[in-house]
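so i finally got all the pieces together for this one. its two components total, 1097 residues if u count the protein bits. some of the lines might not be protein, just check the labels. i wanna see the whole assembly predicted at once instead of chain by chain like last time, that was a mess tbh
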Amino acid sequence: MSDAAPRPNENMGEPFPRIDARLKVTGQAPYPADAPIANLAYGTFAVSSIARGKINAIDIEPAKAVPGVLAVFTHREMAGQLEHPKFGNAAASSIAPLDTTDILHDGQPLALVIAETFEASQEAAQAIRVDYAAEQPSATFDAQGTETVAAKEASEQFEEDVAAGDFEAAFAAAPVTIDQRYSTPTQHHNPIELFSTTAVWDGDGLTVHEPSQNVTGWKVELAHQLRMEPEKVRIVSRYIGGAFGSKGPMTSRTAIVAWAAKKVGRPVRCVVSREQSCMTQTYRAETRHHIRMGADRDGRITAFAHEGWEVTSRPDPYVVGGTSTTGRMYDYGSVLTKVSIVKADRNTPGYMRSPPETPYVYALENAMDEMAVALNMDPVEFRRVNDTQVEPIGKKPFSSRSLMTCYDQAAEAFGWKERNAAVGSMRDGDWLIGMGCATAIYPTNVAPCTVRLRLNADGGLRLQCGSHEIGTGVRTIAAQMASERLGIPMDKIEVEMGDSSLPPAPVSGGSVSTASVCSAVIKGCASIRGKLFSAVVSADGPLKGAEPATLDMKDGAITSSDGRSMPMKEAFVAMKTGVIEDYAEFAPDGATPEAVSKLYGGQSEMKGGEKGEKVKYAFGAEFVEVRINTRTREVRVPRIVGAFAAGRIMNTRTARSQLMGGMIWGISSALHEVTEIDPRAARYVNRDLQDYLVPVNADIRDLQVILVPEVDMDVNPAGVKGLGELGNVGTAAAIASAVYHATGKRIRDLPIRLETLLT
Amino acid sequence: MRAFSYERPSDLQAAIKAAGTSPDNQPPTQAAAQFIAGGTNMSDYMKLNVNRPERLIDLNKLSEPAMTAIRVDDAGLHLGALVRMADAQEHEDVVRMFPVICDSLRLAASGQIRNMASLGGNLLQRTRCEYFREVSWPCNKREPGAGCSALDGVNRQHAVLGGSEACIATYHGDFAQALIALDAEVEIASAKGSHRMPFADLHKRPQDTPQIETALSPSDIIVAIHVPAGPWRRSRYLKVRDRESYAFALASAAVALDMDGDTVRGARIALGGVATVPWRAKSAEEMLTGRKLDEAAAKEAADTAFAEASGRKHNAYKIPLGKQTLVRALLETQDMKV
């Protein structure tokens, strides 16, 4: 394993342990469902066991008979009580379950039981009897009754089917071609912290404790659904036990629980079971891909076509559309892409770590490996031949692209040159050895963000920002940035996040948080520095008359480039004040004038990726070794190396941890993770962690993360490229490549399980 | 989860009495009063509303020393039913005499679960069939006559041996495979007194009554497991699964070999992850007896063991996988240094 706290290389910050590390590993971090609230009542949902149809009748009498039950709410009580959720903003879905007798998916909430205890609410929810008018549902691809729609027509979220040149002509002329189909399965985030809502009313004000990646967006959306002023709503989510996108959009549960709490006149806590989570929360929908690629005999790709299909719910055109990234990945001579969505009787999918890239780059990189084999080229050299500093769609330069440096450093650490390229040629006793590699890529985004800083004369700093510590280390990184700019030690900095009453920050999605929060902190610190500097140059003292531009803050002092210095405390005396407060608003280049007010309105205006004069992406290269038993064919991954370049690395420990977690998830998505759907009923079958497998410690052996130095000040003022979603892109393709190398079998449909490898 | 009452008797007779009497032929899993030991399966299934006891009778305080003892004598091995899996897996006599038993325990569940789970409870663990565990699906085992959702559903983990048109749910235990291979017996205390039963008779194939999982009545308590002495130091349990640890077997094999050079003097074979009950492959044992053990013989034994197997849409792979697992287990057991 690589060192948990890598020594910082060029343009990298110190590996400070996370501020909340001890709280987390000792179980003392108070998660939202731990909030100590007096006089709590407990809620449990009863959910649909059919995927399509209507409620004929719902019998709640057996539930009301359970001792301790306070109330049972169904569509009879709730219809018309709430505004419908607005899909596409902070809401997971437009489906408003207790407003209607229509059933649109398996697991749709049908009733909410409120009781004195958690157990009573559960028992009562299980006692509810529903008489359905069931209809035959359409579960997924190939099912009768689904509706396929072009993404660009169905969704505002999907801008265009990118294209360049004349693909058909180039493909027809190419001497070497591949034409293959790939697929990825349904997956669920399954964060260990279960989903929960605790709703507390105080007069006409509402506080909701719930794990959230978007407290400001939720505040506005929840107020909308409850027909309240946003100022009267507060979302608190200080600690989160795993999110991965699942806690980004608010589900319909939150407003229903809040409404019920008001109705029963008590605070209500609803912790959703693991089994119900998979039906009431979002998920990564299954995807299909058709890739055609043509190359000349030297390995230059002359034609690339990527068509993708994604499943979504009936009402909501959720789309990830990763062709924007795959279409720009290499120096293709021509590009043709198309994305379609397939509407089925399912709940609405949602963001899951690298939503577009995980499935689409899997397909592309598996195809790249197939093409390398067809060309009889080393897969690394094949990427080198097609590497580019200018993307092929808009012919715009990358702000930086260190892909081949990543490949070279990872290949060296992995020992790629020891690989015998012949299929099935490497073996250790009864185990076949395979080695493979693939590219990781993720768009570099940044969004408007605000921050409040309060610095006192003793050097104590309170940093307030409505971002979210979802496990990335952003709370620690924000402190590091302030520590660097204000010259104060980490242990004097207190960071508050995860509360909608703080200055707003963007949704913690799209890997924007480090870049956005740090850019806002830089701006706020610059303002504080300016106030201090202008005070010290005009007051009597060692810095009187100094040019402010020559001043800096270091080790609790204000210093000038000519060696003079003054303790920060004295600068406060010069200012005749005890505290300096600054509130800063950051908006990225190219943001609209309304960007910050939109942020207050719960919307994050993201910039970066393919937008702008330069395109902005982070890159990496991953190499894996697999071992496959010659007889029973189980696949194990004893070794994985990833090298990544992502601009400024704020903290080598948290960066390595994010990338490591991503790579492990990549292994998981290659070999394990799949939510099985019973096609007869459009229902999920494996609803808990017994049957939804993820790797255990014993599955992860030697894992190495290499942080490749890269400087890119085009991306944002912090020079940071978000890397939280980079590590799990490409991993599954690298494993598919290694499995092919070991066995000669090309697996195109994930996950790769032993039954597909049995001879 | 439903409200239940809880009792903690201090000896076997009190526990049996507490269980009371039940209607004829009522399986223990449907009785009003049910026993709990480690609780790793019972509490899980109570939360899922699959097990619905009105009264739970906790066996952990029973005073009979036989229930918590591990003893070895000339007759063989005595394992008390309340011994925790973690304690048996490391017992040096068990390691020495029956490596296959230790393997089967070590490779089961997780360390935390093995610290809690009792040996008796482990034997009686219920199937993990997804359709059985989620009460909104039709299931003949939960509700006789309701129909089996797994037959034409997602059945990758289901059994290819011992199934019926009513049920193909796999028996997922590991320990049981070692016991059935070694001709173990279970000692059972009941209202009528104590008796021994061949372990092979404990579990019932589903046939057309999948709700009847064992030969036990609701007030019967497994007191101990007896494994007869035998030349089984050359024995092991091979478990093939989707991940390296903490997963049920897709296929497994318990193998014990008594070798005379390359020739098999005696063989014991049981198959896990592929059958509805603990599964002894006697025909394969007989085929090997007196034969030189090599790859060809191992393959022939595997073909014999799976001759009656039948697969469905997603579990058909278990037939070739189960065969490969047995071949691998036979050859690896042969290679053991003893």
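DSSP finds twelve helices and twelve strands in chain B.
The first helix of chain B runs from residue 12 to 19.
anyway lmk what u think
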